[in-house]
């Protein structure tokens, strides 16, 4: 199969108590795996099967009608989750430093103000989606997308654009087992397991 589920870069209980083992297992082994499987179903046997994922989801307009939707949802889901696992860690830097820290301060007034605005954006996403920090023309912006859309898909598809620097899954499957309907509590807890050195690599 052309696209593969990447292993979690840490044990499934590594982010306890902030993100519980059961959530990590169903999220990675269940949800993320299904995105990869369904992406493969959509493209296998077509000339698209060897296309790099970012190129595939970055040019949805060029895809045949019957493949575009499945690639948008499942290719987006595969990219988003692969990105998300890598910026989580129990032992990473707890705050942005260096150039990213400076840019966050310049754009939002400080790390606390950034976190507050990011949480509000994640809470305001009705239904399923993602909150993102994107970089564009040297400027940082907090945005959100629906479902498995992401900024790489471009403004015409996802409503947003820019280079994803940081993103948080706000689908209920990301938090419901532990936090039930309290998305705000999940968004507050997740700061404990963001690795800002990993995030800085995306900037
Ligand atoms: Mn998810």
Would you mind describing this structure in some detail?
This protein has helices at 21-43, 53-57, 65-86, 98-108, 111-124, 155-158, 176-179, 183-189, 196-200, and strands at 129-136, 139-146, 163-169. It has 203 residues and is mainly α. The protein has two domains: 21-86, Helix Hairpins (Orthogonal Bundle), CATH 1.10.287; 98-202, Iron/manganese superoxide dismutase, C-terminal domain (minor pseudopilin epsh fold), CATH 3.55.40. Strands 2-1-3 form a three-stranded antiparallel sheet, with helices on both faces. Strand 1 (129-136) and strand 2 form a beta hairpin. It is globular. It binds manganese (III) ion (MN3). Manganese (III) ion is lined by residues 27, 31, 81, 169, 171, 173-174.
What topology does this entry show?
Blueprint: H1 21-43, H2 53-57, H3 65-86, H4 98-108, H5 111-124, E1 129-136, E2 139-146, H6 155-158, E3 163-169, H7 176-179, H8 183-189, H9 196-200
Antiparallel strand pairs: 1-2, 1-3
Manganese (III) ion (MN3) is lined by residues 27, 31, 81, 169, 171, 173-174.
